[in-house]
Design goal:
210 residues, mainly alpha, elongated
Length: 210
């Protein structure tokens, strides 16, 4: 997907490629906090899930999601305000400054939603369920990002490509949030080990007596 997006951007000239590269490096720095949170969340989720403290797991995810949204909002405001000055530190080409500034004013709006995807993926991996985590990434990249990038490029040029990144992050991130908020009985339907043994005993006893 990165190669496909880069090839589309290359069609808009060297300054477009330079803008995307610079924006990507700044983006990696801006997402340090959500990435660090997702890395530390995994052990917490795994430990508490193993101890059958499902409420703590749900609460941790809720707080993590709110942190990601708050961090994303803060970064979006800072980059949106100071983008021209920040970009000028790294490149003085007016075209690069203008295009990178547009990216930093638009795409960081979705960083909070992207952080939600990171933390949810980490939680699923900690629970030994890598398929949902992989599914979220594939849906974001293949179902939304790549098609929207192509469509945005055709309709709005380079700025449409940048907009596709913002839109795909937002759609998947808030879909994960909605799914989690609908999961009201998080863990309540997961039987404890003791209840499993009791159920097995009763079934066995009922079978023998018949």
């Amino acid at each position: 997907s990165v190669g496909f997006v880069t090839s589309l951007i290359a069609g808009y000239g060297a300054s477009a490629v330079a803008s995307f590269g610079l924006a990507s490096r700044l983006e990696a720095f801006a997402l340090i906090a959500p990435l660090a949170l997702s890395a530390s969340l995994g052990p917490f989720v795994g430990q508490n899930w193993g101890a059958q403290k499902y409420g703590r797991v749900k609460r941790a995810l809720q707080l993590s999601f709110w942190f990601c949204l708050s961090w994303g909002a803060l970064v979006a405001v800072l980059l949106g305000t100071a983008a021209p000055e920040i970009v000028a530190w790294f490149d003085s080409d007016p075209a690069v400054v203008a295009r990178t500034t547009f990216y930093l004013k638009l795409v960081p709006i979705s960083y909070g939603a992207l952080g939600i995807v990171f933390t949810a993926s980490s939680a699923f991996n900690a629970l030994g369920k890598p398929l949902p985590a992989l599914g979220m990434s594939l849906v974001r990249l293949l179902l939304f990002y790549v098609p929207l990038t192509y469509l945005g490029s055709r309709l709005f040029g380079l700025f449409g490509i940048f907009g596709a990144a913002c839109l795909s992050n937002s759609i998947v991130g808030f879909a994960v949030w909605f799914w989690h908020s609908r999961w009201q009985n998080f863990g309540s339907e997961v039987p404890s080990t003791e209840n499993l043994y009791v159920k097995q005993f009763r079934n066995s006893h009922g079978t023998t007596s018949n």
